[in-house]
């Protein structure tokens, strides 16, 4: 096995390309978008994923590009401050954990690979034959020894090889929408949050960014909509958040002009196997933990490292699944619990949460309270012992990377 195709130039795709190339494989990446996707939302790198990026030599660059968030402030419907907490605690970060914009991380990964990996932008897979022949929307058919699906929770690769998404998707009962908005609140490395029963709005601005990101989450029964109809999705968001106070009406007005609008259900992907024939899945395509877990990026980075290492050392896809399964299950378990703390169901529960945030700095059991928030994420993020696959590395990457 030498010639590998990766579907999707996501975090999972570019990281897998890096490690496969390090182990001597010939790698092609096909990506539907016309270029590496910029922007996006902020993501966390924790636990075992930190050790992966250290082995890639990226840690200094990642820390230099970190969001540098300082504080998160909760506001009531009339715009009054009701509680403030440290941004790292708000994000469940401890120790060396680092937060970075998704687009910045993907650019760093792409820069590591673009001289040694073939990237085909503006195209996508349409079929995969048993002999490894892959057909594309635009390019001529080509044969590969293995196809890696790294094309996200709505993976086309997974649908081709394993069947319809509905067989594997587990809806948690919430929706999320994120887009860029004007920074009318003058935020500087701050998060501004307003929560109402069943609905939460969060606006933040990171280091060296004059704009802001607005993130909305709400509980809902399954919604029927076209994944390609952005305007209809905006209508659903506005309807869901209708009647919410604070700055939400102004934010929703800005949503209409957003060019980077993201909308999706908070859904996990659960599969008994991540490989079939000549196809294997990595990252959200195989084991999406949902944004509520806070661990999607770390799962992608660790999954890429383990997959490439097992393929290089003879463990194959069976070794990949054996090494990674418990880690994935521990991190997926975070999602259902976390989302209930992100979108509060009742006014009484919301009052209690804000009261505890306000009192936290003064409580005698402060450390225990912090561990209750960040501890489960920290333990899940470290729930794997990474093998050292360095001995199987063959070529080095280009010196001008």
From TrEMBL:
Transmembrane segments: none annotated. It comes from the Bacteria. InterPro entries: FAD-bd (IPR002938), FAD/NAD-bd_sf (IPR036188), FAD_aromatic-hydroxylase (IPR051704). Residues 4-314 form the FAD-binding domain. Coiled coil: none annotated. SUPFAM superfamilies: FAD/NAD(P)-binding domain. Pfam families: FAD_binding_3 (PF01494). GO terms for molecular function: FAD binding. This is FAD-dependent oxidoreductase. It comes from Nonomuraea phyllanthi.
């Amino acid at each position: 096995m030498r010639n590998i195709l990766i579907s999707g130039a996501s975090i999972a795709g570019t990281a897998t390309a890096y490690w496969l190339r390090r182990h001597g494989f010939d790698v092609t990446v096909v990506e539907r978008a016309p270029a590496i996707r910029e922007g996006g939302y902020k993501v966390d790198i924790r636990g075992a994923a930190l050790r992966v990026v250290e082995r890639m030599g990226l840690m200094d660059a990642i820390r230099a590009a970190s969001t540098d968030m300082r504080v998160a402030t909760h506001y009531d419907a009339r715009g009054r401050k009701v509680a403030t907490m440290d941004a790292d605690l708000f994000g469940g970060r401890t120790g060396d954990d680092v937060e970075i914009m998704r687009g910045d991380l993907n650019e760093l990964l792409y820069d590591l690979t673009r001289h040694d990996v073939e990237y085909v932008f503006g195209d996508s897979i349409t079929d995969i034959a048993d002999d490894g022949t892959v057909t594309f929307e635009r390019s001529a058919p080509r044969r590969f020894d293995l196809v890696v699906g790294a094309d996200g929770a709505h993976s086309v690769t997974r649908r081709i090889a394993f069947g319809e998404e509905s067989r594997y998707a587990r809806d948690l009962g919430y929706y999320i929408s994120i887009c860029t908005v004007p920074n009318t609140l003058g935020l500087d490395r701050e998060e501004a949050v307003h929560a109402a029963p069943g609905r939460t709005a969060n606006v933040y601005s990171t280091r060296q960014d004059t704009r802001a990101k607005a993130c909305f989450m709400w509980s809902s029964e399954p919604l029927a909509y076209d994944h390609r109809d952005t305007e209809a999705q905006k209508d659903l968001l506005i309807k869901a958040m209708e009647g919410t106070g604070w700055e939400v009406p102004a934010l929703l007005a800005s949503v209409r002009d957003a060019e980077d609008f993201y909308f999706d259900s908070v859904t996990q992907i659960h599969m008994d196997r991540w490989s079939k024939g000549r196809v294997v899945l990595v990252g959200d395509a195989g084991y999406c933990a949902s944004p509520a877990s806070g661990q999607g990026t770390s799962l992608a980075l660790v999954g890429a490292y383990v997959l490439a290492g097992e393929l290089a050392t003879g463990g194959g896809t069976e070794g990949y699944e054996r090494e990674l399964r418990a880690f994935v299950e521990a991190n997926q378990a975070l999602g259902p619990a976390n989302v209930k703390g992100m979108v509060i169901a009742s006014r009484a529960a919301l009052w209690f949460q804000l009261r505890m945030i306000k009192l936290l700095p003064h409580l005698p059991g402060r450390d225990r309270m912090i561990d209750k928030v960040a501890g489960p994420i920290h333990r899940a993020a470290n729930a794997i012992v990474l093998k050292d696959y360095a001995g199987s590395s063959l070529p080095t990457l280009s010196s001008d990377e």
